[in-house]
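Need a sequence for this fold. Nothing fancy.
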């Protein structure tokens, strides 16, 4: 009886050992940081399937019983795939498609319907973003493949602000002020559009190219502040044409605020620093992994000789590789907090 059970026990023990080692290596060891999370999940899934089939094949049962178990296993897998095809398998396939298309990366700003934020994690079944409220939002990959995804380009994005002014303020007076406001906010190539001629007001759009996309929230706020300063500084009220106040006022009374004192840039704390902290770490980890892979490739091209230049370059490269591996090992734990 012991001899009959021996192959089964050996295969079972080896399968358990392989799965344990693979899980530990793929999730904790820095040597596999070059692999994406999706690839690590796929590898673990394939190894688990192979382990289950191997254990079934070595069970101490008759040939007919073993075939029935294999048939039952195939039936179970088929049923799981069939019943969860709209969720589990569909999200997995969508995750692989997103990786192949490469429409966005870690740290990118994306907008999907009402969701806006920076990408912090890309898994096989879901994508996680960090919203403007610093909350983490999990989006199924199937949702991302069936909806239009807007990605802010790293080279810059258009920052805009809409506002309505009465017909008593001529557009040729408004446009130069709005363009100057866009320049004051740090935007390039400003332009002004008239969006709508309403019954009581004109709707303007002031816009310009914002190059520092990581400061998109700060740029939007800065543009609105600059518009207030420019229009109020030119004695132009930003009020509805139906504005009515029940007090008796002097005809020359104006309802506007005066531009305040300028605050030094070093004293201004951009909100993005505290809002998108996890996305920032995820992006930095990605950059470090890319640098690590490049260094490992360059290390193979450095000749192993005793020349001072080659030997020094090799030692420097190896030291940097070890440093990056230590940093990534620590950063991987922090990015999941």
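Here you go.
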């Amino acid at each position: 009886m012991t001899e009959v059970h021996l192959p089964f026990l050996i295969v079972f023990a080896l399968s358990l050992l392989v799965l344990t080692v693979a899980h530990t290596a793929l999730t904790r060891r820095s040597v596999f940081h070059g692999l994406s999370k999706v690839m690590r999940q796929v590898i673990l899934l394939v190894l688990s399937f192979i382990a289950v089939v191997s254990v079934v094949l070595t069970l101490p049962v008759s040939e007919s019983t073993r075939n029935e178990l294999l048939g039952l296993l195939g039936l179970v897998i088929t049923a799981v795939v069939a019943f969860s095809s709209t969720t589990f398998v569909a999200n997995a396939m969508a995750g692989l498609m997103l990786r192949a298309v490469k429409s966005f990366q870690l740290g990118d700003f994306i907008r999907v319907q009402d969701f806006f934020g920076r990408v912090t994690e890309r898994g096989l079944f879901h994508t996680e973003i960090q919203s403007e409220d610093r909350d983490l939002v999990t989006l199924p990959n199937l949702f991302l493949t069936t909806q239009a995804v807007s990605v802010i380009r790293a080279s810059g994005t258009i920052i805009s602000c809409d506002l309505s002014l009465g017909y008593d303020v001529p557009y040729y007076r408004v446009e130069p002020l709005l363009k100057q406001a866009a320049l004051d906010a740090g935007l390039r190539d400003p332009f002004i559009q008239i969006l709508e001629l309403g019954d009581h007001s004109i709707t303007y759009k002031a816009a310009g190219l914002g190059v520092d996309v990581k400061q998109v929230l700060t740029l939007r706020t800065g543009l609105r502040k600059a518009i207030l300063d420019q229009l109020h500084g030119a004695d132009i009220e930003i009020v509805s044409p139906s504005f009515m106040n029940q007090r008796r006022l002097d005809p020359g009374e104006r309802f506007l605020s005066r531009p305040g004192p300028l605050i030094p840039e070093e004293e201004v704390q951009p909100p993005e620093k505290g809002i998108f902290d996890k996305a920032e770490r995820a992006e930095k980890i990605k950059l470090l992994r890319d640098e690590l892979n490049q260094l490992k490739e360059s290390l193979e091209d450095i000749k192993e000789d005793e020349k001072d230049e080659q030997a020094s370059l090799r030692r420097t490269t190896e030291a940097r590789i070890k440093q990056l591996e230590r940093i990534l090992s620590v950063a991987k734990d922090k990015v999941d907090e």
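For context: DSSP finds ten helices and eight strands in the chain.
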